[in-house]
Each structure stands twice: as C-alpha cells, then as structure tokens.
Amino acid sequence: MRTILIIGAGRSASSLIQYLLNKSEKENLHVVIGDLSLALAQKKTNNHPNATAIALDIFDENQRKEAIQKANIVISMLPAHLHIEVARDCIVYKKHLVTASYVSDAMQELDAAAKENNLIFMNEIGLDPGIDHMSAMKVIDEIKEKGGELLLFESFCGGLVAPESDTNLWNYKFTWAPRNVVLAGQGGAAKFIQEGTYKYIPYCNLFRRTEFLEVEGYGRFEAYSNRDSLKYKSVYGLDNVLTLYRGTIRRVGFSKAWNMFVQLGMTDDSYIMEDSETMSYREFVNSFLPYHPTDSVEIKTRLILKIDQDDIMWDKLLELDLFNRTKIVGLKNATPAQILEKILNDSWTLQPKDKDMIVMYHKFGYELNGKKEQIDSKMVCIGDDQTYTAMAKTVGLPVAMATLLILNGTITTPGVQLPIRKEVYVPILKELEEYGVVFKEQSMSYLGYNPDKELS
C-alpha cells in the first residue's frame, strides 16, 4: 500500500483525513496520522482499517525522520513555522510534501534541492491561500487565452458564522484561530494598487476603509484590506494590472466595531500587562482609559470612543460583558491582545450545534476587442457540523486532492510551488464542486472605480 503521512491532527485535518480514508481502498492507501496527542490522532482514524495513529513529536528528530522515511508522501498540517524541519527531511529521504501554508523564505530556499530530486513541494493549497489561487488563475487564464488584458483583480475571503447560527450583535464567531483574528492587519501598512496608483493604509485606519460586497441569497458584506496585496502581482501574471486588491470579508458593521479595540490599544501584542492574572474584565478596560475622580468606566469609554447613547456600538461592547467586575482574566503575564482574545472567546466560540460559513468573492476587470468587461466569481460554503466545518472542508479537501494527484502522477512539475498551474487547479476545482465548493460566475460591463465615466 502507498503510505501517506499526515503530521498534525487538529481541527483543519478532519475533512482531509476523511477524504483520504474514503479513497483508501480504491487508491490502495495507508494513512498514518501523527500528532503530539496520540488520543487525538486515534480519534481522527475513526477505527478505519487503513489508518494508523502514532504519537509524533516533530521536535524528536529520530521519531520525525523515522515516520517520514516510511511514507510515500508527507502532508504537514503543522503551524507554518514548523514545516521547515519536515521539509528538509523530505529532501533527504526524497518524499513529496504538501502544506496549506504560505511559502516562507526558508521553504523557498529548498526549491533547487526539490527540483534536483524531482520532488513536488506543494504549498498554499488550502482555502486562503489555496482555493483563492486556483479559482482566480482559472478565470485569469481564460481571459488571457481569449486575448483579453486584465485591468482589475480583487479577491476577498472570510470565515464567518452561518446565517442560522448568527446569534450575536457582531454577526461573527471564531471559526479559525482566534489569535489570528485579534492580530489581523498588524505588522505594517496594507499595500495595494488602485486605478494605477499605489495605496497604503496604516493599521490605525485599516478597519475604517472597507469595501462592500453583495452575495445573492446571503446579503451584504464588507471587506478590509489584507496586509500585502502586491506580492501576487507577478505570481498571477498581473504586472500591468491597474487595480490589485485582496481583502478579508466580514458582515457589515464588524470593522467599525472592531476599530474600537484598535483605538483603545487592546489588540497590542508587544507588551505584558502587570497583574493580568488577577485583573477583572472591567479593570482591563479601565487600564486604557484616562483617570477621572468621578466618571465611571462606562462613561469614560463612551467619551473616548465618541459613542452616542443610541449607538449600537455600545450594545456590542455590553454584549461582550467587558465591564464585568467579577470576571477575572486569569492569564499570567498576558499581553492586551491575549486578554482580548480570552474575553472574546467567552462570546464568540462556536456552540455545538453552530455551523460556520466561508465566503469567497473575486472581481476580474478586463479589456477584450476594445470593450471593457467584468466577471464576478462568488463561492459560499456552509459547514456540516463542529467536526466537518466549512473551514476544515475548504482547507483540508484541496490538500487531500493535491496529495492524491501527486501520488497518481497527474501533478508532475517539481519544486517549491503554489497551485497556479492548470495541472493542479483544473482537476481540483472540478472535484471540489462534488463537495459543494462551487463558484458562480457573472459577467457584466466593467466600470472600475469611476461609475460615472460611462455616463459622461
């Protein structure tokens, strides 16, 4: 049997494992699931005869190398910064590697060695990055093949709560790593290009410059800019495009409310707060407010954030129980961002019967035969339950499909790469449709960012 080693059995691995086990008999697969927690790995095998669970500590060099040596191909579902040792071992033992993570500089440095050994190191093959690359390149290639010239490419994606499980004023619950949500947008200005002009949004303004999107059947959304939209300019072959923008989708009103935390300083992860372990939620809020001998924490919060008495922003803060005197942070040597994450987890954790939702939206503006056109491509995916979430499905299934395509010799191009070639995206996008990941494309006239120009 052909052995697939999966390193990491966390939430994102459930749909990935299920897919491979369902294919295991027909495809002659033995799936080895390695995790620091043997119990978690065993749970994910679901007692399948073609699955084996092993305790695997990737910091244990002998254990790691032994597991990789026995595999035909390796899937790393570890946090991004932990892939590199696995990747180096894959070079030594000549094993293909698949990850859903962004290509790091250290991973890119292995490109020559991977090509020399005819190895495929497929990265960014999850949701975002992943399905976004593949669905975008499909349309971009189709436009170019017709002789069209790209004028605009915008891409938006968001992990949200499904409408039937949307039960709070923020219209949001954590469907993925809460820490990533709290730290979103930090580390430098957002960069993009709009109508030929380079634009920059500093973190302090990021959540107040949003774009609105309509998705049929699901209503209105907003999107704030990702940190660096420009890095895919050459990757996508869009060196001459006038507008290139990538953003994160939320329900309308989320960004304005989130900006309150940014302005107060609660998303800062650069310093530790004294006595955080015994601090109440109310004291946490008050620590960011000026001293006043008589004004309450509530009044000071309203004043500094300029919240009127009838503003729903105030109700959103109250809903989080931020001003509770008795709830204790309970985190030792915590940063503001870590404390905020703890508070938000109280309210935004998905409940057992909750479902999540993925929304992806691409816009393509192009000129063909002297006429300017636009294609909007939209995808909505709803999760099944808490194990087989929309997030686990859209991250895990492309990883699993790519793994099988590599094993079966459909994907053959060696090296460290993204899923932007036809040999990758054509079969995967087609198969994803069988699992409810379907893009609906709509054609229209292209107006860019100047809707009056066609009328003047």
TrEMBL record:
Keyword Oxidoreductase recorded: yes
Cited Pfam families: Sacchrp_dh_C, Sacchrp_dh_NADP
Keywords: Oxidoreductase
Biological processes per GO annotation: lysine biosynthetic process via aminoadipic acid
Protein name: Saccharopine dehydrogenase
Molecular function (Gene Ontology), one example: saccharopine dehydrogenase activity
Residue ranges annotated for the Saccharopine dehydrogenase NADP binding domain, each copy included: 4-121
Residue ranges occupied by any Saccharopine dehydrogenase-like C-terminal domain in the UniProt entry: 126-437
Highest taxon in the source lineage: Bacteria
Cellular component annotations (GO), alphabetically ordered: cytoplasm
Coiled-coil residue windows: none
Keyword Hydrolase: no
